[in-house]
């Protein structure tokens, strides 16, 4: 999951640095679709009971991408990414408890809370001077979508009985749907732009699909809240990317926030 966090932050950095996030996300999804399609002949078709879960998950995943593209148009990486990810572990734990009956221990709850507080504090430094309503709306929508599809995908992998099969079918349907949506938004210009950005798209697509496969594998074996919390280490790696690549300042405020995130992860990993 730590490796998945590095890959997750990296593809977000690539998407953010592009001029058109809708096209970047569409191209990234196309790469992921090709990778997942290779697996389809070797996994069983989804059972009838799994199809409603897949459809609902595709809707949530596409909603997340739309909100993410919107957020990155209105804020920088260090501001938008923590806001979008900060409340995900808490949302996912709450939904996982209600929907799946997953009850985290007291210490795990404390760790999840520390991760979320650390990430949200990290975002305050860049957002405290002015309230950006569109940005906050977009990031709130993204965070809620992530928490919801995390729980739904955890349920789907168990219902399907094969985490790899569920992951492959989800990636294909999700990204083909978003590709169609992107074509409707950007028109015929989508295709030449995808070709022009092929290097960035190949890199972000490979990182994205690898990160998501690890995430679904972990969801099939562990509690949603804990997996989601450890995944949010991607915010720490996004801080490093922001500092090293985009030359954003790594202030004491952000350092303290990072320590809270690491402390939360230790609590989740050590205490069951």
Automatic annotation (TrEMBL):
Bilayer topology: Multi-pass membrane protein
Q: Report the transmembrane regions from the record.
A: 22-43, 49-71, 83-100, 106-124, 131-151, 163-181, 201-220, 226-246, 253-271
Which key words tag this protein in UniProt? Answer: Cell inner membrane, Cell membrane, Lipid A biosynthesis, Lipid biosynthesis, Lipid metabolism, Lipopolysaccharide biosynthesis, Membrane, Transmembrane, Transmembrane helix, Transport
BP GO annotations:
lipid A biosynthetic process; lipopolysaccharide biosynthetic process
The domain of life is Bacteria
The protein depicted here goes by the name EamA domain-containing protein
Give one GO term, molecular function aspect.
Answer: transmembrane transporter activity
Q: Where in the cell is it found?
A: Cell membrane
> Would you identify the family this protein belongs to, as annotated?
Belongs to the drug/metabolite transporter (DMT) superfamily. Small multidrug resistance (SMR) (TC 2.A.7.1) family.
Q: What is the lineage of its organism?
A: Bacteria, Pseudomonadati, Pseudomonadota, Alphaproteobacteria, Hyphomicrobiales
Quote the cellular component terms of the Gene Ontology held in the record. Answer: plasma membrane
Every copy of the EamA domain together lies at 142-269
